[in-house]
Structures are given as structure tokens and as C-alpha cells.
Amino acid sequence: MKKVPYRNYISKIFGICIVVFLLFSTSLYSQEETLTQEAEVVESVAEADTSGGDPAKGKQLFNQNCAACHALNRKMTGPALANVETRLAEEEGLDKEWLYAWIKNSAGMISAGDTYAVKIYNEYNQAAMTAFPTLSNQDIDDILAYTAAPPPAPVAAAADAATQVATSETGISNEIVLGALLLIFGLLVMMLFLVNQTLRRIAQANGVLIEKEKAAKRTPIWKAFAQNQFLVLVFSIFLLLSAAYFAYGWFMQIGIDQGYAPIQPIHYSHKIHAGDNKIECKYCHSSARVSKHSGIPSLNVCMNCHKSIYEYSGNPEGPSAEDLANGYTNEFYTAEIKKLYKAVGWDEENQQYTGETQPVEWVRIHNLPDLAYFNHSQHVTVAGIECQTCHGPVEEMEIMYQYSPLTMGWCIDCHRETNVNIADNEYYAEIHEKLSRKYGIEQLTAAQMGGLECGKCHY
Amino acid sequence: MASNKKYWKSEAELNPNDSIVETLRQNEFPEEIPVDEFLGDKNKLSDSSASRRDFLKYVGFSTAAASLAACEGPVRRSIPYVVQPEQIIPGVANYYATSIANGFDFASILIKTREGRPIKVENNMEANVLGSANARVQASVLSLYDSTRLQGPLSNGEPIDWNVLDAAVKAKLAGLQNSDQKLVFLTQTYASPSTNRLMAEYKAAYPNFVHITYDAISEEAALTAYENKYGERALANYNFEKADLIVSFGADILADWQGGGYDSGYSKGRVPANGKMSRHVQLEANLSLTGANADKRIPLKPSAQKKALASLYGMLINSNINSGLNDNTIQTLESIAKEIKSTGGRAVVVTGLDDEDAQSVVLAINEMLKSEAFEPNSPRYTRQGNSKAIAQLITEMNSGKVGALIMDGVNPVFTLPNAAEFVAGLGKVDLSVAFSTNWTETTQEVQYTASANHYLESWGDAEFQKGHVSLMQPTIKELFDTRQFQTAALGWLGNDKSYYDYVKETWETQVLNGGSWNQALHDGIYRSALQDVLAADTDQLASDEDMTTQTEPSIEPLTSALRRLASAEEAEVELTLYSKVGMGDGQQAGNPWLQEFPDPITRVTWDNYITVSRDDANTWGLTNKNVANGGLDGSYVNLTVGDTTLQNVPVIIQPGQAPGSIGLSLGYGREVGMKQEMKTGINAYAVYKGFKAQQNASLEKVAGMHEFACMQLHNTLMGRGDIIKETTLEIFNTKDAADWNKIAHVSLNHQEVPATSVDLWDSFDRSIGHHFNMSIDLNACTGCGACVIACHAENNIAVVGKTEVRRSRDMHWLRIDRYYSSEDTFEQDNIKKDEFSGAFESKTGFEQMEHAATNPQVAFQPVMCQHCNHAPCETVCPVAATTHSRQGQNHMAYNRCVGTRYCANNCPYKVRRFNWFLYNNNDEFDFHMNNDLGKMVLNPDVTVRSRGVIEKCSLCIQKTQKTILDAKRDGRMIKDGEFQTACSAACSNGAIVFGDINDGESKVSELKESDRMYHLLESVGTQPNVFYHVKVRNTKEA
Predict the structure, then answer these.
(1) Tens digit of each residue's pLDDT (9 = 90 or more) over A139-185
(2) What is the CB-side half-sphere exposure of residue B305 using CA atoms within 13 A?
(3) pLDDT tens across B596-636, in order?
(4) Closest CA–CA distance from residue B3 to any residue of chain A (Å)
(5) Are B827 and B986 in contact (CB under 8 A)?
(6) Residues A449, A435 contacting (CB under 8 angstroms)
(7) Chain B CB within 8 Å of residue A287 CB
(8) Could you tell me if B873 and B864 are in contact, meaning their C-beta atoms sit under 8 angstroms apart?
(9) Residue ranges of the alpha helices (H) in A317-357?
């Protein structure tokens, strides 16, 4: 099993500090630059817009109502909407009124037989657009104003340039730091040596005698040790015991893959999904509620969201220094999404499935041996245990790893300490009352309920 | 239904006859490794540069490297669906209702699937008719994953495309349109409304079309007798639940008689309630499962059975029919006749004689008695074979009158007694096609072999009984490039509809009467309210008719039949052919579960044999003996029937076999397309002359001894009545329970006290939570063995093969012990044992008791781990691998077991099984657990055991735990009946009941309070959680 070694924390922290320091010194400028650029863009849009739409408001409305099916610069479920107003006016000779009518009731226009409406309906696999009768003309104007604004592509480019610089710098800085440290250390050793010499010289000069003869008369300590048989015996026993202790410890960890974090075919970040976007674990691992398996989500579950999330644009502050150090750039993540598309057979151009699938061969991280029966639903649904109790801070894991040892001792410890969740569960009502009366306690642990019996997990 | 994988590695593999493929499959290394060449040559060895020291170095290095490498586990891949089917949740089982209708077995069943793989057969409780799966149906799921299945169509043994086959058939059909040559479909019994419709369409399209139905084991006589009387080719239905007296002339009603499935009704009447139970008299030649369950069994040769039937009829109508039977038999028959007369309409007479006269007489008797159990108005359609038509077909084939012969579900070259004529005829047929799941004797002879679907991959329907229609739906997509016959036949007719649409259309127009198709598909069966009314009406009509026409039955047409029966010619040796519970007609001979399934009577696995009575064996010099390794050996004979001789048939001496009669089971002896280990037994179809099970034969002893793999060598109970307690109905009704259900007494402080009152151990308080108990009613158990196979399937039990069974290393967690009495009844055994005085007499006495009586009583007893509360096995385990749970189950942690086998030694019930070998992934045990296909049947919730550990019945803890978890998840209490084990769920006879005795409402706690309740070997003080019910026999004489 391939193990990712623990990183040397001290050097890592030190490295991060340096990186952060170096990053700040450069990115301050780049951020300012992008800000000014964005401001300019918005201004220019505001000036160019004649119909009086508010692009800022429009952006909000667009994200609320349209973004599920439309993007500005690419086809999704529906067509790309950048400059839709001018495009329609120039290519099709359709005015804003047509757009108002279409947005408010597209189905009506199709059934009425409007040529372009029917054409666009057929072009997009006859997927009817939701009607938005609640949008006022002013709202639509706002949205159109937003779509008329040129896409903020340069911003991304600038950011890229900055990140590239940053990444290349971090590489160098680590080496420099190490070199400098070595140098300092060397200097210290030399100084110590020099000070020692100087002191000796001073002592000689002052006539202080260093007593050597006395020491020579004594039996050397190792000889004294070898002659003292009792000490030798005690020491060897101690040595054997400690060797046995460590050997036992080493043997016991064989087959326990705590910290096992294999490289997966698709770099799936639980941190982004469960952490940043706060997606509930059981949205994807839905079978954990009812089955013994938590289940690796099938790719159609991914596509519920990734049909529209086709690229990674990072968190609002941009990739953190640490991410950048690992190469987790926006492009990197977007490339991983493309891997998903390839696996599931999604043709991004035409927004349809090709049917050519390549099932993803994930590397299984949590491997319970066949002889142990574990049921997720028992723990998740009945006991109501948080996923994190066993799987650790998944929402912080960029690379998923095995958090718990998953040994029998670990299971049993928890069964001994954890109280049975009897709230609103009629099944437990009678048995819990009787048993707790028998044991004379308020709350029963899983162990007292019979959770330590061999056959409950081994059959 | 998610998998669309085709399991084959190269094109050549599709042809099972390819010698190269076969060689490659057998040999991992196609070229010999020159071990002998190297090690055998001394010079070469000494010249070799590698010294002993080098060798040790290499060994040391590789051992070190291997152990270092072992520290890292393998990388496991986990591959989710790309698009997950809505109904499938990994780890959760789905159930689908379907039917089996393979021409021999018909049943409405549920199929348990996991992740799209069918893994187990369950009974369909919704179905009133044939809703339970017998041992063969339980095992049929394994045949789906048979690695010898055909993986694509073949032409003369060469793989072809379906297009080629279709084109050939279509061309021939077009040619036959206006030809005087016949187009013949030779098929199994379908009893299918949709297939009947399809055949009718063929008849319309091709005037020269003939559909011939062929049953390997024919019910021709019964069908004809019913047809003559009622005008429809079908079989009368019987409901033995309504019978107080059952008189059977050689009818194996608990096995496959007239399509089988009568055992659950029978069992319901056999449990004494309110002081009453049914009485069963069996007159038969072989000791059958039915005879073993009878209260009174009279061994008679088939010819004598005929005479007896004629005499009985005479006695019933008070006329004297001279049959020439001896006085003893006549007296017995008179007493039976008296009983029948006094029982009247609550009596029923049945026969299994392949004789039209006998069948007609039986129908007449039941009609005359106005038997309530006799239901001729709702006949069964599960046998339709027409042997006259087949005889005609063979003649026509040989005279070149048949242009095309298309077969489905039949293997006539194997099952026809005159197979050679059939093969000769095949040569004169222009086009011969056989649909088959496997390469068989027939596919070997035809031009085109169409790879057929398993029934779990097919659509279909079947009308088992008038008004009871069952649906068949696929539970998995075709594993290979196969097609079901109906799909192909539709295509040849130019109909591009799928057979699913065709079945649905048939149902919507003919069956459903506006009922819901989806509901019918969900239930697997359909009985419309309208049909219920109709059935009631016809019942009413029938009884009205009876009332009017009864009074004096016209015996005129019967007189000649009676005369023929009475003058049945007696032969010196009369052979009765039968079908074994485990093998049936031999369709599933390649199924290792069924091969290892012990015959309920002889307890022999992996074989068929001739059964002879002890007296005849002595006369003919035939012996059975146990050899040093515990195996059973038997003599060989040559069996001659007419002009056919079967060479080297092994012999078993069968207590209860009628003198002058012998028995032999059909279905064994398949050779073509079978794995080496499955080629067992002798093909008895060769002597199935004229489709009659009763034949005149002659025997000739030949040299040599046959090695049997017999599960149980101690045949008799030897008076140890506390294992099987039994009594008679009279004693049961009149005396105190303490008299007939004696509790063993032990000495405590020099005083005799009941064994149940003494205990070495402190008891735990088990009154809280669940406490599982299992009840086994020896009266309801017929010994059918459905539970044994259900246990096999549920618990991933390994098949070990014939040689290992012979060494008593079988792995069955549940066995059904069969005991004979050494006297005529068990009661006499007990008396004899008690009367021994002194050691010497008891020694000789016990030696005598080892031999079963010539007509012994028989008792069946299912035994699995008894889950003792004070288990002797638990205290001797040095590693605490077997422990007890609060819920009453005796746990076995396989990974903790180190294989000392102390527990097995200390178990008084001998239910623990040791894994002598690694039975999975081991090509030495080629019984499905060694290939990917066969492993698909494994239950993912149960560990597959490894070598060197003990295993045993767990009371299906995986099932009880699941039930508990489901209840916890729903937040509800558990209702009685929710807890089931594989065996209790499979037992349609109600013999095995499982449940929670802490639930006062449960059936099992009620059963535990019964007077008949006893524990096995109570005197040992093990306090088992499995209890039995004293067997009550409705005997008059004992």
C-alpha cells in the first residue's frame, strides 16, 4: 500500500511562513491592479449601457435565475448569453420586446409558432425554458445589462500571472532558507570552537592547571559498567524489554493504514465540496442512511452539480498560499472536472452525454477485512453519529485519508463509551427501560446493549 | 438487472468443444515444466552451478522479501456505477417475484438480488398454488452461474452469430410453407398462455406445423385417464389438507408425483390438533419419501399394487374381484377398505402407477367417495407430455417427413429410451435446432445449438392450475449471448415485438380482465376476483352434479380395466424407476449443490444406485459393507430390461424395499458437457421403456465394489429414543405427556431427579431483549430437504466433492438425519433395548439392532447447531472463538478459530464442521467457488470461510441482525414472523418455526409450551435453543 509520509511539520510550518511572507510582498500589487481593472470594466459598462439597466443588480438576478442553465460565454443547457441583446438584434433582427416575451413565457411562443423560438427550442434538445413571469421588464433590462458587459477575462489572466510567479518563487525560497540555516548553524559551531580555544589560551596564560592525571587513575566508566554484573543484567533486561515493546508496537501497526492517503484517479477535494461549499456528506454518500455501505457516489450524482459547474473559480480570496504551493490552482481543479466529464461521457460542447463511459477506479481507502461486518446505517441513521466521528475532519481534507485506525480495539472502545441513542425510537423503548433498571443506570452504552458480542460483527 | 457483462476471454472459449481451450483451461502452463528432466538426471544436478549454499541463500532472500512485501496490503479498487440504477442501493437486497417453469419444476418464487445479482430463491407467500421452492428450485440459482453454460449460438459445435442461425431457420421455414414436410417444435411443458398463443400463431402461419410437448418423466397414464374422464388433457388436483385418510398406491406425493408440490398441504393435516391428524397408508415398492412418512406402509411389487388396487375397488363396491393376492394382503386391504368407508368424503386414494387403468380406477374411487381432497375441476397443467406423439415423431423423422425440428428445454438424446432411433432420425431432418443452456447429448447431435436463457434471465408466464397464473420476469440481464426460445420464435415469425411485450399483450387481453399488470408483476401471480367467483361457481356446479349423478356409479367402463389390473402379470424382478428429490429429471445434474444433496432415504450423495431388499440381496449375493475409512461400499450388478443392459450399476440394500422389486433413479449419468466431477451415476432413461416407470427386469451380479459417498452410516436408532421421541395418536390422546414425552432422569445426591432440574452452570438472565428459539415439528417435517439447500445458498456453504463426503467431511450446516427402527416400530426398539440384561446380552443385542427391519418405521430429524445455553463447545475452546450471545445464538468467530477441533469433539450433536481444505479459489474443488462466475452466487453478508477453521449454523444471525436493524431504523417493535432463518423461510410445511420467545405473542413461544416439546439429549444438560416436537404416528396396531 502506498503511503504518503507525514510531512515534517516544523519545516512545513517554517516554509509556509516564508511563503506567506514572500507572497504578500508581491500579490499586494497584483490585487490592487485587478481591483482597478474591475472598476474600470464596470464603469465602461455603465457608460456603454443606454437602456438604463443596472449590471450589478443584473448580476445578482442572473445568478439567482439564469445561471443554472446559462453561462455568459459558453453553451450550457441553454445558449451563451453574453451580448445576447445585440446578438439577437444584429443576427435575427429581434428586439427587446421579443426577449421580454420569451423570458416571461417561452412555451407560449413556441406553441404560437414563432420561428426563432421554435428553432432555438429544437436546437437545445427541446428542453423548455422555465417561464419567469415574475421578472419585470426592468429586471430583464438589468440582466441584459449584465450580459452586455464584456467578460472579466483579463482579471483571471492577471491572477494567473501572479500565481505563476508566486509558485516559482516558493520553490527557490525553501532552498535559500535551508541554506541560510545551515550557514548559521555552521557559524555557531565555529564560534563555539573558537570561544573554547580562546578560553583555554586565557587559562594557560593565567597559569590555571587542568587536572588530567586524576581522571586517568579512575577506571573508565564502561569498564566499571562491564564489571558490575547486576547492572549489566538489569540493563540487558531493560534493553530486551524495550526492544520487545517497540517490536510489538511495530508489528501491531502492520495492516493498520491510519493516515493512508492514496493518489486517486481524479483529485477530488473533500475540502472544497464538504468544507467550502458545505455539501452535506449524505447528499453524495446517500446509501450510508440505509445500507451497510456508505457508497462511493455514482458519477450521475456528480453531474447533478457539475453539469453547470464546469470550471473551478476558487474561493473569493483566490487560492491560498498553501494550495498554490501544492499546485492546486484553478486550472488544476478545472482539469479534474474535465476528467469527470470524460469518465461520465459528457460532451461539453453539445451539452449531452455521448454514452462512452469510463468508470472511475477509485482507490479504496477504508478497507475493513471481510471477517468484520460493519453497517453504516446502524451508526448513521440509528445512532445518529456524525460522519466526522470516525472519518475525521473530512471537510478539511484536500486529500482524503484514513483518520481512524479501524482496529477492533478502536471499535470496542467506542462501543464501551457511547450511549445508545434511544430518542424517539420505539424499538429501544422496552428493552432499554428493562436493561437500565437491571443495571441500575440511566443510560446504556452500546456495550451494555450487547455491542461487544463477537457474533454481532463476525459472521 | 444492471450487469451487461459477457464473461468470456476469447472467441474460442465460446466453443465448449475446442480442445485447445479445454487444454488451456486445465493447464495453467501449456508447456510442461521440466522438473523431472532436471531433477531426474543426476549428472545435470551435480553439474549445476547452484550449490546447496546458494539455494539456501535464495530461499532466505525470497522469504525475507516476501515477508517484507507482506507488510504492505494490496491496493483495492472501488468502482461505482456511472449511472446508478434507481432501485439498486449497494448493500441492500431487492426481491423480485418470478416463476420457475422448466418443464419439471413449477413454482412461484421470489428472487433475492444483491447489486443486481440473483443470489437466493425464496418462497412466494402470496401464491396459493405451488408457492414454495423445493430443493431443486432452491438450487436453481446456482445453475445460472454455471461456468459450463453455453455462451453463444453454435453451428455443429462452431461458434456463430445469431444472424446466421436466424437466417438459416427463416430460410428453412420459408421453404416449408408449401411443403408436405412437417415443421415440428419439440418442447418441454410450458403451461404458458403466451407460449400457447405463439404456438397457435405458428399453426396459423404454417399448416404443417406440429407442437409436441415432451416430459422426460412422463405422466402419460394420469393425463390420459383424466382426459378420458373429464375431456381435458390435465392432471387432477388434490388438496391433502382436507383428507383424513390418504391411501396411496405407489404415489410419491411428497416428492415429484404428478408435478409435485403437494407436501405443504399434506403436512398441515399431519400435525395433531384437537386430538386428530390425518392417517396415511402407503402401498409401494421402493421406500419413498412418502412411504417413509406414512403411518402404515405395505411393501408391494408394482404388479401386486395393481392387483391390490383392483381388490380395494372391489371391496369398496362390495363386489368380489379375484386378484390372486395372498390372504395377508387381502386382510390388510379389507381393513383399509373399512377405514375408507367409515371416513367417506374425508378419504382420498391416489396412485403413481404408470398405468391408465390404475389411474382411471383411482379417479373413479375418488369420485365415488366424493372426496373433499380431490379437486378435478381445477386441474393442473404442469405436465402435458404426449408420448404417443413422440413415438410418431421418431417414426416420421426416420421416414423423412420432418423438414425442421426445433427443440427447447428438452434433451431427448439423453432422456429417450430409444435415443438411437431419435439420433438416426435427426440425420434425416433438414434443419435441427436445439435451445439449451448447456452443451448436452442433444446439442451434440443437432446442426444448430441456440444458447438459451436461464429462467432467471427470461420473461414468461405459466398457468400451473386452472385460474392460477404466474408471471416470470428476468432478475438479471443475459450473462452471455443467449436468447430465450420464445424471443427467437417470435423473430422467425416476422414479429419484431419483444417477448416481454408479447407476454404483456397476452395478459392484457386474456388474463388480467382489466386488472393491473404492474400489480401482477409485483406479486408474481394473478388471481382475479372474477376468477374466484368462477371457481366458486364451478365448485358449486360440480357438487350439484355429483349430487344428481352419484348414487350408483357406473362401473361398466371400469370392469375391463379392473380385470386387466387384477390379472397383472407378476415378474420375478420388478423395477420401479423414480426421480430423486435432489436430481429430479436430471436437468440440473451439473449443479454441485444438488449432487452433494444427500438422498433423504439412503443419505447417499453423488450417485444413483439400485435399491434391493435385504432378502433379495442375500439371494443374489449382493453386499453392502462399511470399510475402514468409514465409507460404504456396495456390489455391482448388470441390470437388463428387455434388450437393454446397464453395466455396473451399484447396489444399496434398502430396508423396506418390497421383495422381488428393485428401484433405480432417473436423471443421473449425464456425460456430455459436464465437469468431470459431475459425471456421476448411471443413465436409467435407457430402461425407461415406453415411458413406464414400472418395468420387468433381471439382475446379474458382477465383480467389484462401488464406493458410495454416504452421509449417515448409522442407519438405525438402536433404541436411543431420547433423540427421536415418538408416540402413537392413541397414547398421545389418552395418556399424560409424562408418559409419552419422558424427561430423562439423572442421579443427584443418590436420588433420581429430572435431568432438566440439574445444572452445572449458573444461568444468565435472558428475559430482556430477544431470545431466539427454533421449533422443529417432527410431524410436519417430510424430509424434503428444501431447507438444506436454502441453508447452502444463504450461508455460502462449500461443496466438498464425493471423495471428501466419503471421508465424512461434508460441510452441511443443516442435516436431516433419517432413522430406521430395527424392529417393525421404534417402540419395539425401545422395549428390546430396555430388556437387555447384562453386558453380554446388550452387546449382541445392539449388534442385532444395527440392522434395520425389513419394513422399518422411518423418522426424519433436521439437526443443526442447537445453540445450547450451556454449550459444551464454548467451554473447551482455548481461544474463546465460540461464545454465547444474550439473544441465544452461539457465535462462531472464524478469524479467532485456530482449528483445535475441541469444540467439534465436545459437541453432543455433532453439528460442527471443519474446513479441511481451502474450498474457495481452489481448483481442486471445482464446485463454483473457484471461478468468478460461480462466486456471483455468494451471499455478501456471510464470510467465506478459509482452511483450518470450524464452522456451523449461526441461526442465520445475518438475517436476525438485519431484521433488528430495519426495526431500529424505522423506530418500531418487531412483529412475530419477521425473524426468519433460511431454513424456516424455506420450509413451506411449517415444520421449522423460528422466533423470539421473549415475545409472548410469538408462535414459537406458544410452541415451546406444547406438551410435545422436547430438547435433544436433555440428560446432557445443554439447554438448547432449538427444540423438537414429539413425532405422533396415527397407527392403529402399535
Answers:
(1) 888 888 888 876 554 444 444 444 444 444 445 677 888 999 999 99
(2) 35
(3) 999 999 999 999 999 999 999 999 999 988 887 778 899 99
(4) 14
(5) no
(6) yes
(7) yes
(8) no
(9) 321-326, 330-344
| Contact: A287, B89; criterion CB under 8 Å | yes
How far A326 CA lies from chain B's nearest CA (Å)?
24
Q: Is A442 on the interface with B (CB under 8 A)?
A: no
How does the average pLDDT of chain B come out, rounded? 87
Query: Chain A contacts of B973, Cβ < 8 Å?
Result: 426-427, 430
Q: How far from the centroid of its chain's Cα atoms is residue B823's Cα?
A: 30
DSSP of B236-254? EEE-GGG-SEEEEES--TT
CA B298/CA A63 separation, integer angstroms:
90
pLDDT of the residue at B45: 63
| Residue B163 contacts residue B611 (beta carbons within 8 Å) | no
Q: Pick from B968, B973, B981 the residue to mutate for testing the A interface (most A CBs within 10 Å).
A: B968
pLDDT of residue A49: 45
CA distance A327 to chain B (A): 25
Cell of B999: 415475545
State which residue of chain A sits closest to B952, comparing Cα positions: A459
Q: Which of residues 72-131 of A touch B (CB under 8 A)?
A: none
- Which residues of chain B register pLDDT less than 50? 1-3, 530, 533-534, 537-554, 1038
Nearest to B968 among A382, A435, A438 (CB): A382
How large is the ipTM? 0.82
Ranges assigned E (strand) in B124-244: 154-155, 158-159, 182-187, 209-213, 235-238
Q: Does residue A452 surpass a pLDDT of 80?
A: yes
**d(Cα B178, Cα B403) in Å, to the nearest integer?**
11
φ/ψ (deg, to 5) at B659: -60, 140
| pLDDT, tens only, B962-976 | 999 999 999 999 999
- Give the mean pLDDT of A343-356: 87
Cα B663 to Cα B286: distance, rounded to the nearest angstrom: 6
- B122 Cα to chain A: minimum distance (Å): 21
Q: Is residue B659 a contact partner of residue B674, using CB atoms and an 8 Å limit?
A: no
Are the beta carbons of B834 and B1003 closer than 8 angstroms?
no
